[in-house]
Amino acid sequence: YRKDVQSELRTISQTIQDRRKSLHMTQEELAEKLDIAPTTLQFIEQSRRLPSLPMLLSICQALKIQFRMI
Q1: 3-class secondary-structure state, position 21
Q2: Cα–Cα distance between 14 and 26 in angstroms, integer?
Q3: How far is CA 43 from the centre of its chain?
Q4: Angle of helix 27-34 versus helix 38-45 axis, rounded to 10
Q5: At CA 26, angle to CA 24 and CA 28, rounded to 5?
Q6: Alpha helix (H) ranges present in 1-70?
Q7: What is the pLDDT along the chain (70 residues), one digit of tens a residue?
Q8: In Å, what is the CA distance from 4 to each residue of 7, 10, 61?
Q9: 45 CB-near residues (< 8 Å, 6+ apart)
């Protein structure tokens, strides 16, 4: 079970990072849009922190992707 969760977290993290980069957005720019510290976004993108559901929804909105894409 734990490996499945870790795998999903890596997938979510990679999707966020890939989409942010495809929009030519820095971590600092996305963090500012989300009203979070850049280090928090770094931890999310490095799979070191699991974002809450409301945060994931905010990330999707900021990156202009549907939730199911994550």
Answers
A1: helix
A2: 15
A3: 9
A4: 110
A5: 155
A6: 2-22, 27-34, 38-45, 53-63
A7: 577 888 999 999 999 999 999 999 999 999 999 999 999 999 999 999 999 999 999 999 999 999 988 8
A8: 5, 10, 26
A9: 13, 16, 17, 20, 27
Identity at 61, one-letter amino acid code: Q
What is the pTM for the complete model shown?
A: 0.90
> Length of the chain in residues, anyone?
70
Q: What residues contact residue 55 under an 8 Å CB cut-off, 6+ apart?
A: 34, 36, 44
